[in-house]
Structure prediction request, 290 residues.
Amino acid sequence: MKEILFLSGKGGTGKTSITGGLAYIAEEVLVFADSDVDASNLHLVLGNDIMESREFTNGFIANVDTTKCTGCGICEKECMFDSIHVISKKAEVNDFLCEGCGLCEKLCPEKAINMNDLIAGSIITYRTRRGKLLVGATMTSKRERSGKLVSEVKREAKEAAKKMNADYLLVDGPPGIGCPAIASLGGVNYAVLVTEPTLSGYHDVERVFALIKYFKLKTGMIINKSDINDRLKIKLNEFAEKNGITLLGEIPYDDDFIKGLKLNVTIAEQSPKINSILKVIWENIKKETL
Prediction:
């Protein structure tokens, strides 16, 4: 099984739309992972028939039993995160600030504080419209645990892919170069950069490729909206050639991307022209991953 990761240095390049389009046209046995856990949306175009959902816990959070709390203030005084305060003679925890260190639990003379598992999100397995599996997730707003949640999404997707003897695991990566992107790169066989010929697109593809180089991954590039700026498209081609990145294909600007999103279908279903281009790109990706 080959694991292929689609990355972009910024949002709005069409990475998810292209990943969804390739997922639709590919005839091989595939499993998908949406590792953009802060804004998971691949299921919107592939189909969101939920097969399974489970809570993802990571870390701990303080919980006060108000029937035991005497409001002594020791926890408030000693909390280095300023996350617990005595209000109306009872300790109250700010869920957004608590780091789950457990100090307040150890110091409380009344044993009124306990550490509970922190629910950081949910991991969801979908059945796509073409009968394939997609593993995604949603984050809660209480913690920045996206890197660990990405790793768990990928772990579950890999297990499913192995059970199905899948040919490929396609991973829709998060934008940017932060923890989610780094977690997405673990165990990948091939990285695909999805970019656009704009100043921000060029700048951000430089940043994300600098990250990819640390993982020593073979890399390809898709230039989306390729006809909106010829000068910057030439620069992107030069960047790819200079860094040994294979140009997998170019996709011209097409309003059908927007129309497809409104209808919750992939660009491959919406546009016969883009469908044909994506078939060539998919064949190029398969050649690169032999």
About this structure: Residues 35 and 47 are 16 Å apart (CA to CA). The chain has two domains: 2-47+128-288, 59-119.
